[in-house]
Amino acid sequence: MESLHDHAHRSALGELSRFRQEFYASLTSRADALFELTDAVLCADGPVRSLVDLTLVAEHRRGHGAMYDALGQGEVAPQRIRRTLTAGPLPRAADGRIVLAVDVSPWLRSDAPTSPDRLFCHVYGRGKGQAQLIPGWPYSFVAALEPGRDVVDGAAGRGPARPGR
After folding, report:
1. Quick check: is 132 in a domain?
2. What pLDDT is stored for residue 88 in this prediction?
3. What CA–CA distance (Å, rounded) separates 61 from 36?
4. How far apart are the first and last CA of the chain?
5. 116 and 54, same structural domain?
6. What is the pLDDT of residues 20-43, one digit of tens each?
7. What is the number of structural domains in the chain?
8. What φ, ψ does residue 65 adopt, rounded to 5°?
9. Do 84 and 114 belong together in one domain?
10. Is 46 left (phi over 0), alpha (psi -120 to 50) or beta?
């Protein structure tokens, strides 16, 4: 007999597998190397500080030359990746509402006076209790929040195999 938890876990793995297949299909040139590079970014311990360090992550099984080739010559089908990223199901609260978290963060570039479309970003915490306006680009991040805690059953960093393998 299957428990509700087992069904939800299997459903989530199926959705992840479908996403990975669609993501792989959106990589039109140097797909294998770009796919491994993406896995390496997602599975790296901590922040990625240099590209070469990604070649040391177990999920990236190629040399650093393949990584640079993928970044220089690899291609992504923009419409397909947009469709893939937006096609996933949105998590809902118990009452059916979609709960969103929004963050607007500035990318400060006071040293780039000729950069196009710079705005003045309102920044807190610089100096003694005073806010400042610094040239840069504001960017937004929106995330749909799931209700409750998210627990991974001992499978951290381990996703389904690459499509076709």
Report:
1. yes
2. 81
3. 7
4. 30
5. no
6. 999 999 999 999 999 999 999 999
7. 2
8. -65, -40
9. no
10. left
The amino acid at residue 36 is E
* pLDDT tens-place string over residues 81-138: 999 988 888 888 888 899 899 988 887 777 777 777 777 787 776 566 677 787 888 8
- 125 and 104 housed in the same domain: yes
Q: Looking at the structure, do residues 8 and 85 belong to the same domain, yes or no?
A: yes
Closest CA to 80 of 21, 32, 35: 21
Residue 12 has pLDDT above 60, yes or no: yes
Helices of type H across the chain: 4-26, 31-43, 51-54, 64-73, 78-86
Residues in the chain: 165
Amino acid at 65: G
Using alpha carbons, list the distances in angstroms from residue 113 to 107, 118, 121, 150.
Answer: 14, 8, 14, 44
Residue 62 identity:
R
**Residue 106 structural domain:** 99-144
DSSP 8-state symbol, 152: -
Residues 68 and 133 in one domain: no
The span from the CA of 40 to the CA of 120, in Å, is 35
